[in-house]
Amino acid sequence: MAGITVPAETAHAQFTVKGSKFIATILPVSDETEAKKQLIKIRKKYHDATHNCYAWRIHPENEKASDDGEPSGSAGKPILQILKGKGLMNVMAVVTRYFGGTKLGIGGLVRAYGDAAALALENIKTVTLYPLIVLSCAVSFQESQSVYQTVNRFPDVKISGEKYDGNGVIFRLKMKKESLEPFREQLQEQLNRKPELATVEEILDQI
Q1: Considering its fold, how many domains does the chain have in total?
Q2: Cβ neighbours of residue 67 under 8 Å, at least 6 residues apart?
Q3: Eight-state DSSP code of residue 8
Q4: Do 109 and 179 share a structural domain?
Q5: Are residues 60 and 150 in the same domain?
Q6: CATH number of the domain to which 72 belongs
């Protein structure tokens, strides 16, 4: 599977349209629970705002948009479309509005909410995450050099930790799934035995 692009930071933007102030907040979120917690924080921060409209996209297929009292389809949907247009996942955008006394109409609201989200995303830093597997690999002290040598042959395989006990070294490795079998074969050649590789977990992470 190809990687997913996610925000690496929080971003903000604000502007005023006909007296109404729009404040956009972009947040990286790993799941729906985190998104809801962040939304609560923003609602507390802007507790006196007229609306806190939002959208999120969470890997693999969790999407939500809310108009928070604005006319249906005038706020959450245009925010979501901006997130989709940027190709971002694991992201939430909240656009807070302080009403300025002049109605903007459906078209004006769609433009304002979309523009606020787009402005906040303009220069945001992103990273690409890949579906990886984390493995443990137990070897003797004498065999540890073989692990280092094999890892160096695979750009998609990284050592993320090492533990030592009386029997040797337990490596913690992370890699793309498609690298597992070629890596296993290479390591077996180096060790002259079947390597002890155990899957610990599956994650989304950088290589």
Answers
A1: 2
A2: 51, 53, 73, 74, 75, 76, 77
A3: S
A4: no
A5: no
A6: 3.30.230.30
End-to-end CA distance of the chain: 14
Q: Whole domain around residue 45: which residue ranges? A: 4-124
CB atoms within 10 A of CB 15: 13
> Following DSSP, what letter does each residue of 58-85 receive, concatenated?
ETTTEEEEE-TTSSTTSSHHHHHHHHHH
Q: Do 34 and 88 belong to one domain?
A: yes
Give yes or no: residues 92 and 143 share one domain.
no
Residue where the block lists tokens 């990273």: 127
Q: Is 171 exposed, middle or buried (0-12, 13-18, 19+ CB in 10 A)?
A: buried
Give residue-wise pLDDT tens across range 78-131.
999 999 999 999 999 999 999 999 999 999 999 999 999 999 999 999 999 999
Say which amino acid occupies 136: S
pLDDT per position as a tens digit, 3-62: 999 999 999 999 999 999 999 999 999 999 999 999 999 999 999 999 999 999 999 999
